[in-house]
Queue: 2 jobs
Job 1
Amino acid sequence: MSPSPDFTQMWRDLEPLGRSSASGGYFRQPFTSAEREAASWFLEQCRDRGLDVTADEYGNVVAWWRPENASGAGVLTGSHLDSVLDGGAYDGPLGVVSALAAVDVLRDRGFTPARPIGVSVFVEEEGSRFGLACLGSRLLTGATTVEQARDLRDRDGVFFVDAVAEAELPAGAGRLRWADLREQVACFVELHVEQGRDLVDRDAPVGVASAIWPHGRYRFDFGGEANHAGTTRMEDRHDPMLTYAMTVLAANKQARLSGQRATFGRVDVHPNGTNAVPSRVTAWLDARAESEEHLAALVAEVERLARERAGLDGTSVVLTPESVSPEVAFDADLAKRIAGADGWPVIPTMAGHDAGILSAAGLPTAMLFVRNPTGISHSPAEHAETGDCLAGVEALAATLERLAS
Amino acid sequence: MSPSPDFTQMWRDLEPLGRSSASGGYFRQPFTSAEREAASWFLEQCRDRGLDVTADEYGNVVAWWRPENASGAGVLTGSHLDSVLDGGAYDGPLGVVSALAAVDVLRDRGFTPARPIGVSVFVEEEGSRFGLACLGSRLLTGATTVEQARDLRDRDGVFFVDAVAEAELPAGAGRLRWADLREQVACFVELHVEQGRDLVDRDAPVGVASAIWPHGRYRFDFGGEANHAGTTRMEDRHDPMLTYAMTVLAANKQARLSGQRATFGRVDVHPNGTNAVPSRVTAWLDARAESEEHLAALVAEVERLARERAGLDGTSVVLTPESVSPEVAFDADLAKRIAGADGWPVIPTMAGHDAGILSAAGLPTAMLFVRNPTGISHSPAEHAETGDCLAGVEALAATLERLAS
């Protein structure tokens, strides 16, 4: 076993993988060469530490630190290595690197866990390629079935199953199964960069999650009639871009009024020509709310306003919920146990995470957040100070020590 | 010389080239295999008719019917073979096929022109690949310089000059030069499917153009701040999608109020991820107006409203006019001469055409329109009845006979 590199060295290793020299942002879509390189790096780190790597047929990995006398249900920690398009360095990788660094910290201290500790990496957490967030953990836990995944394609039309089949997966892929994992661990702790400014406001480098807001992705297909942009009289048009535009503004206004979140960040226009009225505009609404009732009411109101406008534009609206996640209340006792010792604040989050999927699958789950000075995430400007990252590693190590003793 | 096929046969030849089996629309972007196939088909038709093919270095073609005794400045007719994305069958090809069919009609009647007749095909009329409409005729006439064309790229980043270099051009490309052509012809007549319903309202199968409205393409770059769609508070955002959406609605409203035309049919979002507030939205405004003053006022008002909204959104707006074409008044005497004999109505058009570029370059120019029952164009639903198309061929043949006698 080679000497384990420290947090900073691991961070430097990952830094160049999938980074755009133009924007400084990351493009680590699942099963692309950049993401597979990051996955290989992780396996190498596991080998260097003598961790026992298990993987499922989709590339989800759990690497075990399981000393000879370790027994009983242990603890799982980790995150993901994929990114949104042009994303930040921290969302995902910080949890993976911190998990490895926490193992190093515990070993340096001479700690030997009485229960196994697993370090996990789940694939396609962001849903940036196949459209379904937390796809890896969904497939592992059965929240999404293989049959459902068969229909998923990326923007180029590549099927998820084909991308998996062509990707280089860890040797022995298929050994990892949810039924076994569920017996091997008593809880999951995911460390993540904060994606807001709650910890800045509270002046704390680390916090613990209370719950994930319910959230969903909703595809809006606005249908109209393609026509010449010059010769078609304004009053003869059925322009779906107008219906889309009004829906964008309506979603924003409704979210502001109700204190919830609504975003149209992705749009696909056909034929997308300068001199043609579009025949179709497809757009995705990302909506989040403090309760499932609030979420349903928000989306229903946006849909109502979209239909009202479509009536004026002579266009059509078809709404398809692509993924809707109910509220995830993390294990309160576990959160109290983690936060209690050091007095870390307990805060809610509006972002979905694999932790939410594992929690919904019945595994007691907690999350640690590391302060983000600007709150910016899903952007090249995403950041965390090294000092705060190291505080996160310390908090995670302390948590693992407590839970695996 | 093999017997010349009739209009219907030529139309059938062209029909499958570049047609989407999904939409029934056409994808004949310049220098793609579909468009090159159509170009080859045209050259074959010219060879079959014994026409003398000349071409320039960009693939613009003029094929000459020049009997031994023909002399003096003749007449040029033709159109283009490229299409918008998912376009119709008639926009462009109808003028090319009708030109060949008109030559056949005249020969069948035993007419021998006293002056040369040229049949032309100009490349990239739609600007659907490289963004600049009438690029072929612009380059031929010098309205756009080679240096300006060097910066043009398609959506994949392919440079125009590289696409030309890799395309199969007619043998002897480079023989065609504007200075020569300008001396060889006294006028240009382009036949085109109508892109509105003026001829339907007037109950006429054929009409003659009076003028082309001034029009332009304006790129709007809306800049904001990428961020997480879930965790970023609505009030902390700088979301350029909101500024874009308001600008779409403002452009539509201004055009409606002023009786002009404004369309946002093309948009490009970065990073275009469902769960990310975009950092940038780029969109193209197609605007047309009855006068250059009206056009300038329309665009200025849209820009003012975009900036006003950007102030609220904390975003930025950069407006770049990519191409602005002044009004083209076609040769009034020529139009009267063409329309006079058969009493065809004389109507304006809001669509740009190569005829507008040649007219601006000083060549007396006219256009014939063929009735379009729905007025729909730039769409798979674009249509003209065969009877009307044949009336168009007859009108063009009569015009050529008159002008080349």
Note: Residues 215-325 of chain A form a domain with the Alpha-Beta Plaits fold (CATH 3.30.70.360).
Job 2
Amino acid sequence: MGQTRKMLETLESDAERVNAALGDYLDSDVQLIGEVGRHLLLSGGKRLRPVLFLWCSALCGQEGPLGVSVIFEYLHAATLLHDDVIDNAGTRRGKPAANVLWDNPAVVLVGDFLLAKSFWLAVQSGEMRLLEVLSATTQTMAEGQVLELVYTDRLDLNQDQYKQVIVAKTAVLIQAACIIGGIIAGAGSEWEEALKTYGLEMGIAFQMVDDALDYAGTTDEMGKPVGYDLKEGKVTLPLIHTLAQASKKEIKLVEKLAKMGDYGPDEFEDLRQIVEKYNGVGFTLDTAREHVRRAQEALEVFPESKERQNLIELADYVVTRRK
Amino acid sequence: MGQTRKMLETLESDAERVNAALGDYLDSDVQLIGEVGRHLLLSGGKRLRPVLFLWCSALCGQEGPLGVSVIFEYLHAATLLHDDVIDNAGTRRGKPAANVLWDNPAVVLVGDFLLAKSFWLAVQSGEMRLLEVLSATTQTMAEGQVLELVYTDRLDLNQDQYKQVIVAKTAVLIQAACIIGGIIAGAGSEWEEALKTYGLEMGIAFQMVDDALDYAGTTDEMGKPVGYDLKEGKVTLPLIHTLAQASKKEIKLVEKLAKMGDYGPDEFEDLRQIVEKYNGVGFTLDTAREHVRRAQEALEVFPESKERQNLIELADYVVTRRK
């Protein structure tokens, strides 16, 4: 546990450095941009993506600039802002979601501002390869979000389709943070390949755990309402695994809830019991652990170092976290 | 008139070439993206921005690639898509607006896809200076749209604030198309400066004429409902000029309509009469003509050519067009 605590301390202090930088680039002559942007960016968050960039670049011999690290958080935040509009979410990280405090238009446009700011910061780096990776990533992310929308309410979704969505909407950005860390530090192709695998597997595991917690956590722990995914028509791994084994009667109930959309805590309890019966959460966490193992294995090409140890610990933390 | 007709013919045939390229880059594994994207991109439109890029590059000695020209239309289209969500617009170019046919989420996300595609195409060009201009432009555009939102329903808006908005939300993209035309063709700094001025002044004039037509045109002519700007709380030059001279009673009426938002044709007729009394439309068109003159003047540094003549004619056309 000593190693984990040390990793978490480094994570926290690096997140603090990232937070300062996040504020620096938000300034605009248009006050509302700073307000909405800060609301989202100061609501906490682990800064997983910027920290992965910093640690991966340090792993390859030279920590990259904070001005690049924030790109990954801005892109992530832009996605969250547009998601808030899309989901009409009521809370996010325990605070009212941005679209509850401000109108949808402001939220859409500040998301656009953050996309534009990311693009600008990427260009400022002067690194063509960074730009290539990032531009391919943002395209895949947009496709992933549209795909998720297309798959809304599709209770017949299979594991491959689910994986396709989470890779595109979540994993590629986490992967980009890792690869670009390597690019900025001048890592060779072998190390870049390793970071590519590490980032992808981490990203998949991270989203799977998120999806498991929606059926396993409590609202207090998660800082956002649980049992939310099916309300939004998102069919995720715990449910896919469950539906593959459930009885006709149980499937009927899930279909009923999916149709209702805005079901209450009692109905969610019924749903949770079915998911528990077929070990939907356990299966999802096991699968996530398998991806974490692959992520850690990829780091074997690197010589031992504090950074390598932290990246290994961080991968474990992804599946042990409760929110 | 022979010159104008020749220019319009070239405009049309170049727009056709742009249209083909616009379709080429829309393909995605996610079908919905192509559907929504094509809805907007095949609804017509003058392709002013891509054509300006092509003509300005040709003016500097070498026509730029179609793959770069489409960037400006994709960025414009992304803005329109997000605007549709923001304004809850019912029609656009005489066709139902995208958000009427599809849900807001799809429209927001396909807008994001087009932004990402623009970024990707820009990176493909391999031109760092293109990327610098474009990344600054997209940031300014996002700020401009937020600023327009902040200024919603502000009947005390002055001409400087109005100009600030139209430069940021419209003119900088038109300007970027012109400057990047020069960059791609390897124009020196004197020519780039000239294109910078031409593009900015063209962009300002273009938006001013749009704003004048909202008070002067008819729904049939414009392909979108007129009298719409005030309904959305957009306070534009014809109204600003009018309010500066109107009587207290007239101002009260305008305030009443602004508050109503969804006023009918009779109320709009009252509003139009006040704007006509103080020559709001005439003043706006005169101001636009002054900007067109400055745009044309900037082209004097270039030797005579077919392209220079077309760019001069196009500037005139901007203020004579009826839609």
Note: The longest helix of chain B spans residues 189-216.
